[in-house]
Amino acid sequence: MSTLLKFVEDQLSVKANHPKFKAGDTVTVNYKIKEGEKERVQQYQGVVIQRKGSGSTESFTVRKMSNSVGVERVFPVNSPYIDSIVVNKVGVVRRARLYYLRELTGKAARIAEKKQ
């Protein structure tokens, strides 16, 4: 039984090498998708509107606009299907949950970028 627990801990610690990001950051999530017997990597780029949970149950929600329709997707941080996460822009926001972006479109939905 202890070997199983050690295996699970090793798997979770391997996935902890993602970069640090928070709500307001624009990220690209490279996600593995299985279609039949084939496997491919799909990129999903958008704004992180929330991070939720802690430990092995932690997740984050990414929102993007696709053909003028808002699409949100929830990713578990420790998912084995996440190939990599790339932080494209670091946003400056004052909230941990950016649900107000759901009502905004166009230029109003922009987030200020952190000056380097």
Quick tags:
mainly beta; 11% helix; five-stranded antiparallel sheet; 116 residues
What does this protein structure show overall?
The protein has 116 residues and is mostly beta strands. 11% of the residues lie in helices and 42% in strands. It has one helix and five strands. Strands 4-3-2-1-5 form a five-stranded antiparallel beta sheet, with no helix packed on it. It is globular.
What percent of residues are in strands?
35-45%
The helix count comes to 1
C-alpha termini separation: 49 Å
Helix content: 10-25%
- The value of Rg in angstroms is 16 Å
Strand order of the largest sheet: 4-3-2-1-5
For the secondary structure, the number of strands is: 5
- H/E series: HEEEEE
The major sheet is characterized as:
5 strands, antiparallel
Based on helices, strands and strand pairing, what is the structural class?
mainly beta
Low-pLDDT parts are: none
Shape: globular
User: What is the arithmetic mean of pLDDT?
Assistant: 88
Outline:
By secondary structure, the chain is mainly beta. It is built from 1 helix and 5 strands.
How do the helices and strands line up, and which of them pair or pack?
Layout (H helix, E strand, L loop, with lengths): L1 H13 L11 E10 L2 E15 L6 E8 L2 E8 L5 E8 L27
Antiparallel strand pairs: 1-2, 1-5, 2-3, 3-4
